[in-house]
Amino acid sequence: MQKSLWNEEPLASRVRPKDFNEFVGQDHLLSKGMPLRVAIESDKLYSCILYGPPGCGKTSLAEIIKNRTKNDFKHFSAATQGVGILKPMMKEAKEVFSRTGRPTVIFVDEIHRFSKSQQDTMLPYVEDGSVILIGATTENPSFEIIPALLSRCRVFTFNPLSKEDVIFILKKALKTEGITFEDSELDIIAEMSGGDARTALNSLEEAMELARQSGLSKVTNVEKLIQKSLPRYRKHADEHYDFISALHKSMRGSDPDAAVYYLASMLESGEDPLYIARRVVRFASEDIGLADPRALNIAIDAYQAAHFIGMPECTTALAQAVIYCAVAPKSNAVYRAYVKASEDVKAHPYEKAPMMLRNAPTKLMKDMGYGKGYIYQHDVKGAFLVRNYLPARLKGKVFYQPTNRGLESKIKEKLEKLWKDFKKWEDTQ
Fold first, then answer.
1. Torsion over CA of 18, 24, 28 and 34, rounded to 10 degrees?
2. Which of 119, 189, 313, 316 has its CA 20 to 30 A from that of 3?
3. Does residue 179 or residue 109 have the better pLDDT?
């Protein structure tokens, strides 16, 4: 009778390593002599957070700890179990600690799913040593773990597995399965997994089952047997920030190819196109500004297109804006002008507008001096009159300093002439 994967434990679970001699990857943390491995092997573990992408070995390491420790070990999943189950577990750990002096190791998978108040419930037990907390998360602990708990845990960062590591795991899993794969097919599965061993093993298992159903003992065209891989980018994890940062910096670096790549990575993975469009609008004013004012118009047009037609039709509008921003001349002079002005405002929050510039809609306000000395510019030849419009304390201060790039070079020429005229006027006052 043919073996079927549906009648047994999943392959990824069956081949999970039982000890360090079976563990693959994370050498920077778990090779011989490394502090984390020494702590586990000597059963002197401390509270820690295992942070890394899916399928890189966090849960497998927890299983190794379970097999090695002499302390009680509890497994808890924040994805499927509530804090109502965790609280009794913590209280029991405290009782055991009071009675025997031995802490309980509690592995909390997907700890980032706990709210701040739920994480607070673990603090006293981690603090008094009755619980050794091992939290596993795919989300950045800096954002998802409360500072009080994070300060009591060491953070160990796991990396995606290399393609070679994934291929090694796949070959090991195949030894008892009775089906063979061409090396090139395993290479495809490993490449599609993005360093996620669980995804690779699930794909391998799916391909094996479909091969068995077709009466095959050797798989030679794996791409037709398994679904296409999802892009590595995950819109609700660190990649959300990493990829938008990469897009922003690629546009700033005038690399349209990289910029459109990161745009496609986000859109094809389900990112909200309006989120991207808003960031491109910001980029157009922050990093291009008056060097090319058309960039802001094009970015806003792309936002409106994304809002109007949605995905997938808006992809080209966004790509047009991203490519334009990438090749446009760059200037952050507008951004720097605002930052400087805001710093002055914060330093002197009660500065008043000069009386000359204040509107005087009533006789009383005119009598008080509102608007006194103001000259309407359009009544002057050329509609320009050199005056100081800043508060007296800031007289002559320059916030906006244009660059020599794009349209700003012409703006700079004009302003330099105006500054000279202003200086001449200032010397006569």
1. 30
2. 189
3. 109
CB 8 within 8 A of CB 33: no
Quick one: 310 and 382 in the same domain? Answer: no
- Residue 322 CA to residue 264 CA, distance in Å, equals 11
**How does pLDDT run across 305-324, given as a tens digit for each residue?**
999 998 899 999 999 999 99
pLDDT grade, residue 259 (50/70/90)?
very high
Does residue 369 lie within any of the structural domains? yes
DSSP 166-199: HHHHHHHHHTTTS-EE-HHHHHHHHHHHTT-HHH
**Total tally of structural domains belonging to the chain:** 4
Please give the Cα distance from 426 to 421 (Å, whole number).
9
The verdict on 144 and 175 lying in the same domain is no
Q: What integer pLDDT is reported at residue 35 of this predicted model? A: 92
Percentage, residues of the chain above pLDDT 70:
89
Same domain, yes or no, for 252 and 323? Answer: yes
What is d(CA 6, CA 22) in angstroms, rounded to the nearest whole number? 25
Asked if 47 and 131 sit in the same domain, the reply is yes
**Containing domain of residue 221, as a range?**
163-225
Half-sphere exposure of residue 306: CA atoms within 13 angstroms, side-chain side: 25
pLDDT at 386 over 70: no
pLDDT the model gives residue 234: 56
35 and 145 part of one domain:
yes
Report whether 186 contacts 167 (CB < 8 A): yes
Q: Quick one: pLDDT at residue 182?
A: 77
369 close to 355: Cβ distance less than 8 angstroms: yes
Whichever domain contains 138, its CATH number is 3.40.50.300
Q: Which two tokens stand for residue 329?
A: 């001349």
Q: What is the pLDDT of residue 2?
A: 43
Q: Which two tokens stand for residue 291?
A: 């060097």
Ordered alpha helix ranges (H), 226-327 = 238-252, 256-268, 273-283, 294-309, 315-327
Domain boundary among 225, 248, 270: 225
Per-residue pLDDT tens for 197-254? 888 888 888 888 777 777 766 766 776 656 554 455 555 556 677 889 999 999 999 9
Query: Residue 304 sits in a domain of what CATH number?
Result: 1.20.272.10
Beta bridge partners of 137: 51
Cα 414 from Cα 425, distance rounded (Å): 17
| Residue 297 dihedral angles phi and psi, to the nearest 5° | -60, -45
The residue-averaged pLDDT of 115-131 equals: 87
